[in-house]
Amino acid sequence: MPARGSPRRSVRSPAAPGRGAVIATLCVAAGAAVGAPLRFALGRRYDGALPWGVLAANVAASLLLGLCVGWSLDGNALALVGVGFCGGMSTYSSFAVQTRDLGLRPGTTYAVLTLGLGLAATTLGFVAAGR
Q: Record-annotated residues binding Na(+) (predicted)?
């Protein structure tokens, strides 16, 4: 506690975000508002006996995220594209449920394929960005 007569310091409450945090949050929301419906559309269009739509969404998001890292995006650009769009388009929960629903052998194959292609796409994006 400050001594009597000393100036008080203004302490910003963590519950009151600054303008930058609000803008970043809006960027995440805007990116997710595009990415999530795109994933849904890919799933509706291409999912069948195998979940090709979700696989395509996850791999595409991985590629784009690799590009974001390779281009060193930060701030609002990273919030919009990396966190919002890629986060909205990719899905771990659908991947996990679909892997389980496929059964042991096809599910294992799908999991390895998804993880391998996702890692390859991320690496490709990073390298393509010139890093």
A: 87, 90
